[in-house]
Design brief:
745 residues, alpha+beta, five-stranded antiparallel sheet, four-stranded antiparallel sheet, 24 helices, 11 strands, 7% strand
Length: 745
């Protein structure tokens, strides 16, 4: 592999103009397609095959009036007044008349006639039903809906919006994300000791992520895609794009510290060695993200493939565009101490020559000197952090988790105050009596309504609504408990087991659906797919790392460390978002179950990122052991040479992901926090602490491979043993672009 990447890096450096032109053209084409022909994303999470989705599909086909998007308008009277006052009634009527005129609205209920008013008369709601699903309602109609609320607001009423139509899409590019990129630049400048070198990974990462995100936006025209897919592609693509470029630029700068090192040869060698680690790490991330399709959930498959495509672009950028730009910068990236006429390192301080990565050497020696205490403290600390994960509960995000200042969150709170916590957990019983004789349909539906109403955890059952031929009937059911309560989950299972028997006995079919039931179904589907997904990840890690390091113990250690990282990261997520700690610091509106796809997504993404650090760190250890056969010195050398880069890479990842913690979308916020804490734990506790300690204990055995397996496993040569001899630097006249004062670099 190293030999081929060497040739690729040398070709990209020689043909830098063509390489740069191709990437600029790709970016322009992708931006044009994404902006001009980009499709729409959805906020709905559909899972074919589960009961709630079957009910929704049935309604779309045979009862579209009940399957359209809804906007729930919640009215609250001012203090000391009620909605029954003449002024308030006129304002509500005027508002609902304006709502009925919004394009796409097919029906509007009135709380004063339907009785949808709280017992004290201060809170009421009206439902505006659209003739198309929520994700197809245009923004212009939503804007008209907002404007239609003015009469009630002018009358002094508090008016908030809920329902499926009002769910806001995830947005990116806010101040927090920009701060994350700025922090990443500062870390790059400190790690590379050069502002010029620090800017290069940012530029190349933005090119790759620009092509990736714009392509995803264009593909959303043809593929159903959730709004978090684009955000995830941006999040992952930007982070790994910066890190992969950092690995290669750092290796290039390290080689240029030798005044005799030729620049083109150094570019090719950096592409061959660090590029091998980038290739292995990138392929690992891509396969891990693509493995999300094993869950059998379309929206999760699309999210994984979108992010995987962006990572693939990041790898291609690192192996082609980065060498091309390194060739453009030429001698300007050579460290000052290695330039002609510079004083030797450490001059003026006899006996105190400072080596790059000297703090890493000290840390590596500490880990190898006290491996057992280091392991005990680190593992026990991670297990303690993982304890909250034992209480993990999964669900789908509701309006309760929207920002506290948003109209969606306020409408949720008003409905809870006026009608009880179960009102926001409304269930829908859909009865398909097509195969039931017409004479028996009414009695079958009545039997279901009666059975549902007798359940002790049911607050109310709304009057049934049916199609003109009576074949499809819908009953609204309000539980006594909220959507996140375990009693509500038990209620859904109980209704499916017992309450629908009058219809099934008569030959029909009944479904228990609604947003709450959908969350329960999706969570169960993901929980059942999780063991297979984790198995795929573990087997993948063992095989790839065995190929990379020609060892059995190193892959086993890497997998166990990854499992510790995952457990600790999920524990931290549960402690904050589900248990409600530090909610003010992270601007969490309400403690709630974790979005059901977050653990699967975290496992896939964090696995790939963990292998990034594992490959880059351990490859330097194996390289040293391969040449010197000293196991302990190899561990210390690996931490010395790669510790600073892995630290910088982890801090950059954390900065990029951390910017998304303050996104208004609760799902994006949770993903950002999970990846931030996961990366920090894996890089600093597992890779830079546990890994050196374990490898020092294993000694030479860490790098052993049975002879029969050694013959079967191909040699991938990520250390660069097959590369041609180093090309010496030859004096030449500097170009005008390279005659830049050193203090400006």
């Amino acid at each position: 592999m190293a030999k081929r990447l060497y040739a690729l890096g040398r070709w990209a450096a020689r043909r830098r103009g063509r390489v740069l032109a191709v990437w600029v053209l790709l970016l322009a084409v992708a931006a044009g397609l994404g902006i001009v022909l980009g499709g729409k994303v959805t906020t709905e999470f559909s899972v074919p095959g589960v009961e709630s989705q079957q009910a929704q599909d049935l309604l779309k086909a045979k009862f579209p009036q009940a399957a359209g998007g809804t906007a729930r308008i919640v009215f609250a009277a001012p203090e000391g007044a009620s909605l029954s006052g003449e002024k308030q009634r006129h304002a509500i009527d005027a508002t609902l008349t304006a709502v009925a005129a919004v394009p796409g609205v097919v029906n509007v209920s009135n709380p004063t006639t339907t009785g949808a008013v709280s017992r004290d008369g201060t809170i009421g709601y009206a439902d505006a039903l659209f003739g198309k699903p929520a994700d197809l309602v245009p923004q212009s109609a939503k804007d008209r809906l907002d404007a239609a609320l003015d009469p009630a607001k002018k009358a002094g009423l508090a008016v908030e919006l809920g329902g499926t139509v009002s769910t806001p899409p995830a947005e990116v590019g806010g101040p927090a994300e920009v701060v994350g990129v700025v922090v990443a630049f500062v870390v790059l400048a400190l790690a590379l000791s050069s502002l010029l070198a620090a800017g290069l990974p940012l530029v190349t990462a933005l090119v790759g992520v620009g092509v990736g995100v714009m392509t995803v936006q264009f593909l959303s025209r043809f593929i159903d895609m959730t709004n978090t897919a684009t955000v995830l592609a941006l999040m992952i693509g930007l982070a790994v794009g910066i890190d992969y470029a950092l690995f290669i630029v750092s290796r290039h700068r390290e080689q240029l510290a030798d005044p005799d090192q030729d620049v083109p040869d150094s570019i090719a060698r950096a592409t061959a060695t660090a590029g091998s680690a980038v290739t292995f790490a990138g392929v690992t991330v891509i396969i891990a993200l693509a493995a999300l399709s094993a869950a059998g959930i379309p929206f999760l498959t699309v999210m994984g493939l979108a992010a995987a495509g962006t990572v693939l672009l990041a790898v291609l950028v690192a192996l082609t565009l980065v060498p091309a730009l390194l060739a453009y910068l030429g001698e300007r990236l050579r460290p000052k101490s290695a330039r002609p006429g510079a004083s030797p390192a450490g001059a003026g301080t006899p006996g105190r020559e400072r080596r790059p990565g000297s703090w890493g050497l000290a840390w590596g020696r500490l880990m190898t000197r006290f491996p057992v205490p280091v392991l005990v403290v680190s593992v026990l600390g991670l297990l303690a952090l993982a304890l909250p994960a034992t209480g993990l509960r999964l669900g789908l995000p509701s309006n309760e988790t929207q920002p506290a200042a948003s109209t969606q969150h306020k409408s949720y709170e008003l409905l809870t105050k006026g009608f009880g916590p179960g009102f926001n957990a409304t269930l829908v019983v859909v009865v398909d009596s097509t195969r039931i004789p017409a004479a028996r349909r009414d009695s079958a539906v009545a039997g279901v309504a009666d059975a549902v109403g007798k359940d002790p955890d049911i607050a109310t059952v709304a009057p049934p609504r049916a199609t003109e031929d009576g074949a499809i009937t819908v009953l609204g059911v309000v539980p006594k408990t909220g959507p996140d309560d375990q009693r509500t989950t038990d209620l859904v299972h109980r209704l499916r087991d017992r309450a629908v028997t009058p219809v099934t006995d008569a030959g029909g079919t009944a479904y228990v659906a609604g947003a709450t039931a959908a969350g329960i179904d999706v969570s169960a589907k993901l929980s059942s797919a999780l063991p297979l997904f984790v198995t795929i990840i573990v087997v993948l890690a063992l095989l790839l790392l065995m190929l990379a390091f020609r060892s059995i113990l190193v892959p086993l250690k890497a997998v166990l460390g990854f499992l510790l990282s995952i457990a600790a990261a999920i524990g931290a997520v549960v402690w904050v978002f589900q248990d409600g700690h530090l909610t003010g610091l992270f601007q969490v509106a309400a403690a709630a179950p974790i979005a059901c796809f977050v653990p699967v997504l975290l496992i896939g993404v964090l696995f790939g990122l963990a292998m990034d650090y594992e490959v880059f760190l351990v490859s330097r250890m194996r390289e040293h052991f391969h040449h010197h056969r000293d196991a302990r010195a190899a561990v210390e050398h690996g931490v010395e040479r790669s510790g600073r880069v892995v630290t910088a890479a982890a801090l950059i990842m954390a900065a990029v992901f951390g910017g998304f913690i303050f996104n208004h979308d609760p799902t994006v916020k949770t993903i950002g926090f999970a990846l931030t804490i996961g990366v920090l734990i894996d890089a600093f506790v597992v890779r830079l602490t546990i890994v050196p300690a374990v490898l020092s204990l294993l000694g030479r055995h860490a790098w052993a491979l049975p002879r029969w397996l050694e013959r079967a496993v191909p040699n991938m040569d990520i250390e660069g043993d097959s590369l041609p001899p180093r090309t010496a630097n030859t004096p030449r006249t500097a170009t005008a672009s390279e005659l830049v004062p050193a203090e400006k670099i």
